[in-house]
Write a structure and sequence with these properties.
Layout (H helix, E strand, L loop, with lengths): L2 H14 L8 E3 L1 H11 L1 H22 L4 E11 L2 H10 L10 H4 L4 E15 L1 H68 L5 H36 L6 E3 L20 H21 L5 E12 L9 E10 L7 H67 L5 H36 L2 H5 L1 H4 L3
Parallel strand pairs: 1-4
Antiparallel strand pairs: 2-3, 3-5, 5-6
Helix pairs in contact: 1-7, 2-6, 3-6, 6-7, 6-8, 6-10, 7-10, 8-9, 9-10
Length: about 450
């Protein structure tokens, strides 16, 4: 295959691998973040967990109120005792002159309708269950905040990946144009008898290599666009960025900001819940006192009748005196669980402080890399211009020109990575501190 055919084939591949920009939805950073909080299943699932925890907390609170229940039971028996009490409850009892009617009674049917009101008077479990449910609700809510920040951070990183891909694609397109200029210069010098045919071939090799880099860059952009759609919560397709995120959009975080991470707050609530669980196990040594009132009807043929009505009221106390060590074992287990969670909380705080310190260090490194990349780009562009002039004057070789062109392409790629890397590093500090949503404010910046 000739070089012309190869170049034509590579150009067709580049053309077919590119999706028209008008066919892809474009979003700004704030729109992408707001859509993530609305549409991403992970965030929606976390919000559903909060609603479930809130419902459980309300259910625990309602146990202080009285319970009213309705029961219906049908029985048919010829048992002497059962038959006798059925007659009494139905108020149909009649004395018999002999014992045969009591010892061998006929089968009797009974419909018992009972309305029962129960009211706990003293039950420590009600208090502890209510407080533990409230702590669980707060812990789930705090974890929901952390999940929102995780989703926002993932979308931000995907957005920056698309941005970096576009920058590399732009630099690759510029490098391709510059490589074409080198091919033209080499061909002109060869035609004038001042250059070697080998120089022309080497320049064409460089241009083909840049074309391959451009193909990779375009495919990388499309992959990043798919990951951005996935991060937002869209089922499929691609999403492009409308405008690049600027470094100033995420100001340098305050290194002394107190951590407000949702996972730390959730762990604190979990530890508090474990302490309540220990106290609840201690309260199992106390008695339980309750009140119950019933109103009931008994009838042999129908239900819900006003025949044979009666009522009862009772108050009861239950106190377990000995349980073969079950309560003491449960109390020891609760204390051990509480200690384990306290140690886990301490470890989580240690890891969080380390993560913040590392994020701050990485931000300083990213700032230095950006400054160096900007300086290197200026030097590489000046070097390329100088060597191009010297090559045109016959004072430099094609090897010199190809070397500076290759170095320029490398520096451009590093600059694109350094610009997005600094934004990502700053965002990581906010994330580790637990203030990423406050810094980005995606909901208030979203378009209506």
């Amino acid at each position: 295959m000739t070089r012309t055919a190869q170049n034509l084939l590579l150009g067709l591949i580049l053309l077919c691998s590119t999706t028209p920009s008008w066919a892809i939805e474009q979003v700004t950073l704030s729109e992408a973040l707001a859509a993530t909080l609305r549409e991403r299943p992970m965030v929606q699932a976390s919000a559903a967990d909060v609603a479930a925890a809130e419902a459980i907390a309300q259910a625990r609170s309602s146990r202080y109120l009285p319970r009213l229940s309705l029961s219906e039971r049908f029985t048919r028996t010829d048992e002497p005792g059962g038959s006798l009490f059925t007659s009494l409850n139905q108020k149909r009892f009649e004395l018999s002159p002999d014992a045969s009617s009591y010892n061998d009674p006929p089968a009797r049917s009974n419909f018992e309708t009972r309305l029962t009101l129960s009211q706990p008077l003293f039950d420590p479990d009600l208090k502890f269950d209510k407080e533990r449910a409230a702590l669980d609700r707060d812990a789930v809510s705090a974890r929901h905040g952390r999940h929102r920040e995780e989703a926002v951070l993932a979308t931000l990183m995907a957005y920056l990946a698309v941005q970096q891909g576009h920058a590399r694609q732009g630099w690759a397109e510029q490098s391709l144009a510059e490589a074409g200029e080198l091919v033209t210069m080499a061909q002109e010098r060869e035609a004038a008898g001042m250059g070697l045919h080998a120089d022309t071939l080497r320049s064409e090799v460089l241009r083909n290599d840049v074309r391959r880099q451009l193909l990779v860059a375009r495919n990388s952009v499309q992959s990043a666009q798919r990951r951005l759609a996935l991060a937002i919560g869209r089922p499929d397709g691609m999403i492009d960025i409308a405008v690049p995120a600027l470094i100033d959009a995420i100001p340098l975080p305050d290194k002394n900001t107190a951590m407000q991470r949702g996972d730390l707050a959730a762990m604190a609530k979990t530890v508090a819940g474990a302490e309540l669980a220990t106290r609840q196990k201690q309260a199992t040594y106390l008695p339980r006192i309750g009140l119950q009132a019933s109103y009931f009807w008994n009838e042999r043929d129908l239900t819900f009748t006003d025949e044979a009505e009666a009522w009862s009221v009772s108050a009861g106390l239950e106190w377990v005196i000995f349980d073969a060590g079950e309560r003491s074992s449960a109390l020891a287990g609760a204390r051990a669980r509480q200690l384990a969670l306290e140690l886990q909380e301490r470890e989580l705080h240690r890891q969080a402080r380390l993560a913040v310190a590392e994020a701050i260090q990485q931000t300083g490194e990213a700032e230095a890399q950006l400054e160096l990349a900007q300086s290197s780009l200026a030097s590489a562009e000046a070097s390329r211009e100088l060597v191009s002039q010297r090559y045109a004057a016959g004072l430099a070789t094609m090897s010199d020109l190809l070397a500076v062109q290759t170095e320029l392409a490398r520096v451009r790629s590093e600059l694109a990575a350094a610009e997005t890397g600094l934004i990502a590093a700053r965002a990581q500090i906010y994330y580790e501190q637990g203030t990423l949503l406050q810094a980005l404010r995606p909901e208030s910046e979203a378009r209506p």
